[in-house]
Recover the amino acids of this structure.
């Protein structure tokens, strides 16, 4: 228990400017309790589905959520953090308003996705895995979206954009800046 | 309860009505790939035309038919006329099709890809002669892009659940024998005989067993499973039902990547339809067989494609593999006998039951039976999803089906098997695609990703790319994998940066052996393959990086120079996009790049509209 809190605190310190935002947002359409109510209590087989649903609804898994999920599933928050941090999907800080994901699959790679990613990183002045200070964009790289025939691919929020190029990526960002 | 025969009769009537309705049918390929190419705009455009002309038409979203390179793809069927498939249907093309073909008599042959069936029509060739869509037999993908994936009756009308119905009339052992006789081998890549796997699990004592469908499709560059599930979700579920019956399992799981939201949605929907139809639950179709299917979404860990890691993930733990034996077939999910089959393996089972093992096994080679789907991508003209009999050569796939290399460049290699596979050089293009031949070439069959590489692809960069992937995805349990891949990656980084040493190749090979032999699971055991095959077949390219400090394909940033040629007309665009202000020049005069300030990001190269920037 103690160790977890240290890990989480470490996270908080590192991202001190967004600490406040990592709190579970109040007034969310679906509260954590409402999500947990849908699952059987104490069954660890539902741990990952619960984490997924929490992230889907809140955008990330907050330290408070870890505690509550721990109490519900009977798995220590430390272990839950261990499980969740193993998987690339879970994030523990609030994402930006828009998330742009650049595909780094093989077909995208041979068609130049590395340059597209670097271009977006330069434009947003952040690295993959980070969020712009104004909270507008999060940038992620994804192993493969399976749209290889339309490589290179980028996904803005939930819209898939095929046949990308650096100039197209710049235009896409501009469109969402407004 | 309705019998399956009654349901099928109604479905057939519905399908006929759908096919022969008086209003035109517009089938739009709206799988994820179609949407990426703009299929949603195409749908909007058709709806607009509908309003504008007061046209009555049936717009249906279907899956991907496979020709992703000309998406958005639309099939239009007018009553009494052959159904025609059109490619690159953007909004302008929609307006033309509406006016000329839907309202008029001109089928717009220049936009058409082919007609369904074997006859040509108004100068439009039949699809059976199309390089990608005309491959025979088309059995696994037969419904993709043809049926509405959300319509249970469409699947039923086209022979759906016939295989399951047949299976129920036989004993589980007979079903297993049929699958064995068909010679079906695992389509996830390893090629283990499916029937044998089922037999081991069936022979285990106890009445709680599980069947898991592995839809993790983690190999970057592979999208066969996504396309199949999005276009024909019921075939996967039918495979699970037959498998569950054969094993004596009462519960099935589909473990699917969360990166495939549409596929997840389609599966969930199809499972509900099955439940409503009485094909899931207790005493299915009046038999003594109870079965239910649950979906588990992956959470972005490549290693979870490995069966023991996958089960750990379903159990709510870190997806780390464990030593085998015990194999999952004896002790798997929650310690119970479990079979894990790939999506395509399970989707082949209904076919085997429907047409029989003998007919199934007439395609393929002696040891690799049947057909297999491949995701053809990279530097090839026709990219998309294909289905070919095993034993087809790489040359046939790349040139006959794929139409050759993009911009008619030279082919350098074909990569199969994703990060676990290898690069097969152009000189070995006559290698037949079957489990044994690909392994002998140093690669693997893998799940079906096939990436074509041309002269502008740097093989050191490709090796580096795959290794950086496996290094990141290594779960960290086995030190040879965790540390070894890191050390190998560092060597490759050094070579790419022009700081390689002549001994580096031997170091890579030695480390590769350690990683291969010292890792528990397939990830570590195969991670060195891309490095080993590129070292084996592209030794010269490594040596050019190491001794000449030169990247022959002009890819590795540290070893290349960008230059502006006389084709430059001084439009100033490059100097505006350059992030390091390395480009100078007067407007309307030729610009120059200062190699000292240039960071080799390629922004100028990507933005130049006059091909005036070269890289060497």
């Amino acid at each position: 228990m103690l160790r977890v809190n240290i890990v989480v605190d470490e996270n908080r310190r590192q991202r001190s400017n967004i600490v406040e935002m990592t709190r579970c947002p109040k007034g969310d359409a679906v509260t954590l309790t409402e999500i947990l109510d849908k699952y059987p209590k104490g069954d660890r087989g539902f741990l990952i589905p619960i984490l997924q649903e929490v992230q889907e609804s809140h955008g990330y898994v907050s330290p408070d959520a870890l505690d509550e999920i721990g109490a519900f599933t009977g798995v220590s928050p430390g272990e839950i953090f261990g499980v969740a941090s193993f998987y690339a999907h879970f994030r523990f800080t609030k994402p930006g308003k828009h998330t742009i994901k650049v595909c780094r699959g093989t077909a995208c790679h041979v068609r130049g996705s590395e340059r597209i990613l670097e271009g977006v990183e330069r434009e947003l002045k952040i690295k993959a895995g980070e969020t712009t200070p104004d909270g507008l964009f999060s940038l992620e790289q994804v192993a493969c979206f399976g749209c290889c025939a339309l490589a290179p691919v980028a996904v803005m929020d939930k819209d898939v954009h095929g046949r990308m190029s650096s100039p197209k990526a710049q235009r896409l960002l501009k469109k969402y800046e407004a | 309860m309705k019998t399956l025969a009654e349901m099928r009769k109604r479905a057939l009537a519905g399908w006929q009505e759908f096919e022969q309705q008086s209003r035109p049918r517009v089938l739009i390929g709206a799988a994820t790939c179609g949407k990426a190419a703009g299929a949603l705009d195409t749908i909007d455009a058709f709806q607009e035309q509908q309003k504008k002309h007061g046209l009555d038409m049936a717009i249906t979203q279907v899956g991907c038919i496979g020709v992703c390179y000309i998406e958005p793809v639309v099939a239009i069927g007018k009553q009494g006329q052959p159904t025609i498939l059109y490619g690159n249907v953007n909004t302008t093309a929609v307006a033309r099709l509406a006016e000329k073909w839907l309202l008029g008599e001109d089928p717009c042959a220049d936009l058409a890809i082919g007609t369904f069936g074997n006859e040509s029509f108004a100068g439009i060739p039949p699809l059976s002669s199309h390089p990608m869509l005309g491959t025979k037999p088309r059995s696994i993908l037969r419904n993709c892009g043809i049926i509405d994936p959300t319509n249970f009756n469409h699947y039923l009308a086209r022979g759906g659940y016939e295989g399951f119905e047949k299976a129920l009339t036989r004993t589980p052992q007979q079903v297993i024998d049929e699958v064995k006789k068909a010679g079906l081998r695992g389509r996830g890549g390893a090629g283990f005989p499916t029937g044998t796997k089922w037999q081991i699990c069936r022979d285990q004592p106890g009445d709680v067993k599980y069947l898991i469908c592995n839809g993790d499709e983690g190999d970057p560059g592979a999208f066969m499973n996504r396309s199949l599930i999005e276009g024909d979700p019921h075939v996967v579920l039918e495979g699970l039902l037959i498998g569950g019956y054969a094993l004596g399992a009462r519960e099935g799981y589909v473990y699917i990547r969360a990166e495939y939201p549409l596929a997840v949605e389609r599966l969930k929907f199809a499972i509900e339809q099955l439940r409503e139809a009485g094909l899931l639950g207790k005493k299915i179709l009046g038999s003594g067989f109870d079965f239910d299917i649950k979906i588990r979404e992956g959470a972005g860990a490549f290693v979870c494609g490995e069966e023991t890691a996958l089960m750990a993930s379903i159990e709510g733990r870190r997806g780390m593999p464990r030593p085998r034996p015990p194999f999952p077939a004896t002790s798997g999910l929650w310690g119970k006998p479990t079979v894990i089959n790939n999506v395509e393996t399970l989707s082949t089972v209904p076919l085997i039951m429907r047409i029989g093992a003998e007919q199934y096994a007439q395609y393929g080679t002696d040891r690799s039976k049947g057909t297999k789907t491949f995701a053809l991508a990279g530097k090839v003209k026709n990219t998309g999803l294909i289905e070919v009999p095993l034993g087809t050569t790489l040359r046939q796939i790349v040139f006959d089906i794929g139409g050759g290399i993009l911009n008619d460049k030279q082919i350098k290699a074909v990569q199969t098997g994703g990060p676990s596979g290898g690069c097969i050089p152009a000189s070995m293009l006559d290698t037949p695609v079957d489990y044994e031949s690909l392994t002998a070439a140093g690669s693997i069959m893998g799940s079906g990703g096939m990436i074509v590489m041309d002269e502008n692809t740097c093989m050191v960069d490709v090796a580096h790319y795959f290794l950086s992937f496996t290094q990141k995805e290594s779960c960290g349990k086995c030190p040879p994998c965790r540390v070894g891949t890191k050390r190998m990656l560092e060597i490759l980084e050094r070579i790419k940066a022009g700081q390689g040493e002549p001994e580096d190749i031997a170091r890579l090979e030695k480390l590769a052996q350690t990683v291969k032999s010292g890792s528990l699971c397939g990830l570590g055991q195969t991670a060195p393959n891309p490095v080993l095959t590129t070292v084996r077949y592209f030794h010269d390219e490594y040596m050019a990086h190491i001794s000449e400090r030169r990247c022959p394909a002009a890819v590795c940033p540290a070893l290349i120079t960008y230059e502006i040629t006389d084709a430059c007309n001084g439009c100033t665009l490059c100097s505006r996009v350059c992030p390091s202000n390395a480009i100078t020049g007067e407007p309307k005069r030729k610009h120059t790049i200062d190699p000292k300030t240039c960071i080799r990001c390629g922004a100028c190269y990507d933005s130049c509209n006059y091909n005036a920037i070269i890289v060497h």
Chain A has eight helices and four strands. Chain A has a mean pLDDT of 85.
